[in-house]
Amino acid sequence: MSNDEIFAAAYREHYWAVSRYVARRLDGRAGEVEEVVAEVFTVAWRRRADLPSSPLPWLYGVARNCLANTVRGHGRRRRLVDRLGNDDTAHGRHIAQGPETETPGAWVHEALARLSASDQEVLRLTAWEELGIDEVAVALGCGRRAATMRLHRARRRLRAEIDRMSPAVAADTGHSLREGERR
């Protein structure tokens, strides 16, 4: 197969997985998902000769870099708007969420949000993207041992956050967690 055919096959096979990956990380900014995914596959097209035989973890690594560029761009725009004094709070437009906006299991996302970006990413790659440790290593651009250690530490920190939140979680869900059930 030619490099073009390999790229086309990777695109057809992994477009939706990459789209879901990006969408979950752009939480609430659905309009930008297509732009980032297009950027990912543009990079893949330019580097189609470098596509590995199992391209999905590599594509996730490219998507991580494209997302980082997008986040940096948002930061620059936000700082500019702040300097110009043209933000919503300056003009009195506030959005209040109602009680029905609380989604089931939101406490898990809250605990995850309290972790560092690198801890969040390694946990998302294994849980959301269902990658094995070798694929996680490719996506993160590190060795297998480093990926294993990062995952272990991230799981430990997530458990600590959940344990810290457990009295609040128990109150929110109406369940009491006995010490033996938490572990």
TrEMBL record:
Annotated ranges, domain RNA polymerase sigma factor 70 region 4 type: 107-158
One Pfam family from the record: Sigma70_r2
Keyword presence, 4Fe-4S: no
Family per similarity comment: Belongs to the sigma-70 factor family. ECF subfamily.
Biological classification of the source: Bacteria, Bacillati, Actinomycetota, Actinomycetes, Kitasatosporales
Keywords, comma-separated and alphabetical: Sigma factor, Transcription, Transcription regulation
InterPro entries assigned: RNA_pol_sigma-70-like, RNA_pol_sigma-70_dom, RNA_pol_sigma70_r2, RNA_pol_sigma70_r4_t2, RNA_pol_sigma_r2, RNA_pol_sigma_r3/r4-like, WH-like_DNA-bd_sf
Protein name (Swiss-Prot/TrEMBL): RNA polymerase sigma factor
Superkingdom to which the source organism belongs: Bacteria
